[in-house]
Recover the amino acids of this structure.
């Protein structure tokens, strides 16, 4: 078997395992879908009227739900990635990763399978968010190309966050530790343009929000879904995702290949 | 009458004519300045069972990890199934099966799904996959629980599944790191049976254990490790010949009597129940008599005496000089 075929076959086997988990434990899968949907309902239904009052210009044109959706999409990706960190860490502590490491398989297959599974869940969760948002009056009007670009960005975001949380999972000493680390990408969108424009935030916080990675990503989604211009945001968004993915991939592979911790 | 050279005893299994399935030369590994394995030399002929014995921290697990390509040695060389563990890791991995101290199973899958996962990772064809999975479920007595999630399996069932996964294909060399830890007596018997079957099948087995009895029953050869160093290696019989004869076990009516006797007999150690003493002995009648005379003279009543031939415990403690 060639290396490429081995890599593909083994990664698909691992992805299959990940999907099998999701199917066997639907409650875990469903709660993964529910969290962003609840965020959407909460922010639109409870805070929406007040928050919309703070929006100005074209942003205020549509309902608050239109402003909200891109941020919730990003949080959905963060929620999926959080679960990835815990799964990888559990595999570590249960010795499964050690078992895979002594088999003649493509070594990073278990990590690649997790990342592929994470991307798949990100896209499905994103679709659920859009469906519920449509019910709340969200009526995006992009052309086919923009839809495709939005899908691509969501997958790229899922890819980057999955590699990051795979590394968290390998790095943490136990599942609880992995979970805490994974809260960072989950909560970072709060201090971005997800719910309110950074311009309305106090100085300092506003600067942070303007330059943190999720702001250009959210602004790109906003542009794509509203059918507006994306330009400079898109470049920054793709650069952030690629950068996070590259650094996390390197980190994850190094953690994966390191010597087992304990002597004996 | 012509001079006949004495015929060499027939070995139970070939030990010299067959290539070594595991060969380690000068293996060394340190963790943060602490030497876990020092200059280890091992040679296990194909089809043999080697037991690696030693207390916790003696380097057993580190040795298994180096031989199974999980850990890179600091120095030295190891060949497993004819391949170098450092430079030909993938070839080594293709030839081995490894079971660690804890059952490495996927708790979110069923037993069958775990085995199917292994079959896929071994790249078996769908037909082979189905028949192998069925065989393993049968062989490891898991057919009834096959479609239940592993999360509800008992410890013994998890262990059996773990082994079934390791032995999915027929590896040339199997590493079992403390395979009976946490098993009840029945589970231990079942595992011993599996090791014997592997040996019969010509599979080379390296197992680590803290139980000398286990090594005695299963292994063709035994290697004793202490502080990462190999202190003795040989067949169980050869090693037992190095112990000073055997031991005597004295039982007392109460702890006070046991303590009194302990003060009289410097070489003795207290057995686990606190009411018996075990001491090295040549098991001669004269020796036993003088021992009992001394106790009687001191008015320490003994309730029972048993003299035992040397076992691997005696060897181990004779060689390590450890207080038991």
């Amino acid at each position: 078997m060639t290396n490429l075929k081995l890599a593909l076959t083994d990664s698909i086997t691992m992805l299959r395992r990940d999907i099998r988990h999701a199917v066997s434990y639907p409650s875990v899968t469903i709660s993964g879908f529910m969290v962003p949907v609840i965020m959407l309902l909460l922010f639109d239904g409870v805070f929406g009227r007040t928050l919309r009052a703070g929006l100005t210009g074209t942003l205020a044109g549509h309902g608050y739900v239109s402003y909200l959706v891109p941020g919730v999409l990003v949080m959905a990706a963060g929620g999926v990635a959080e679960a990835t960190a815990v799964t990888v860490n559990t595999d570590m502590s249960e010795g499964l990763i050690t078992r895979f490491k002594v088999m003649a398989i493509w070594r990073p297959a278990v990590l690649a399978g997790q990342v592929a599974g994470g991307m798949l869940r990100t896209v499905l969760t994103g679709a659920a968010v859009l469906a519920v948002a449509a019910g709340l009056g969200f009526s995006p009007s992009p052309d086919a190309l923009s839809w495709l670009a939005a899908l691509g960005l969501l997958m790229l975001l899922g890819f980057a966050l999955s590699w990051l949380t795979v590394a968290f999972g390998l790095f943490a000493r136990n599942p609880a530790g992995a979970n805490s680390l994974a809260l960072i990408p989950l909560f970072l969108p709060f201090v971005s343009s997800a719910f309110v424009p950074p311009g309305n935030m106090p100085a300092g916080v506003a600067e942070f929000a303007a330059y943190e990675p999720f702001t250009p990503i959210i602004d790109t989604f906003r542009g794509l879904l509203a059918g507006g211009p994306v330009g400079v945001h898109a470049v920054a968004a793709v650069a952030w995702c690629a950068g996070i993915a590259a650094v996390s991939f390197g980190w994850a592979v190094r953690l994966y290949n390191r010597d087992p911790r304990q002597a004996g | 009458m012509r001079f006949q050279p004495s015929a060499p005893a027939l070995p139970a299994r070939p030990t010299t004519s067959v290539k070594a399935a595991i060969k380690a030369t000068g293996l060394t590994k340190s963790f943060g300045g602490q030497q876990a394995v020092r200059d280890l030399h091992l040679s296990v002929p194909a089809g043999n069972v080697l037991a690696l014995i030693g207390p916790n921290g003696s380097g057993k697990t580190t040795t298994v990890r180096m031989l199974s390509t999980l850990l890179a040695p600091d120095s030295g060389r190891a060949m497993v199934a004819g391949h170098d563990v450092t430079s030909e890791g993938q070839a080594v991995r293709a030839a081995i099966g490894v079971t660690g101290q804890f059952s490495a199973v996927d708790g979110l899958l069923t037993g069958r799904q775990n085995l199917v996962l292994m079959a896929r990772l071994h790249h078996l064809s769908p037909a082979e996959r189905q028949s192998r999975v069925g065989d393993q479920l049968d062989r490891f007595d898991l057919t009834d629980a096959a479609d239940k999630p592993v999360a509800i399996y008992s410890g013994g069932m998890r262990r059996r599944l773990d082994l079934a996964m390791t032995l999915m294909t027929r590896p040339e060399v199997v590493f079992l790191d403390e395979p009976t830890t946490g098993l009840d007596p029945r589970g231990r018997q079942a595992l011993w049976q599996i090791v014997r079957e592997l040996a019969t099948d010509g599979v080379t087995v390296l197992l680590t254990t803290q139980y000398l009895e286990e090594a005695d029953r299963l292994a063709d050869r035994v290697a004793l490790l202490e502080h990462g160093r190999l202190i003795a290696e040989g067949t169980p019989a050869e090693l037992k010949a190095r112990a000073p004869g055997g031991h005597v076990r004295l039982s007392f009516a109460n702890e006070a009597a046991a303590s009194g006797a302990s003060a009289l007999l410097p070489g003795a150690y207290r057995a686990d129940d606190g009411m018996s003493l075990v001491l090295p002995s040549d098991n001669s009648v004269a020796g036993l008599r003088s021992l009992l005379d001394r106790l009687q003279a001191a008015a320490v009543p003994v309730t029972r005496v048993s003299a035992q031939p040397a076992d691997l415990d005696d060897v181990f403690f004779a060689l390590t000089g450890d207080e038991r």
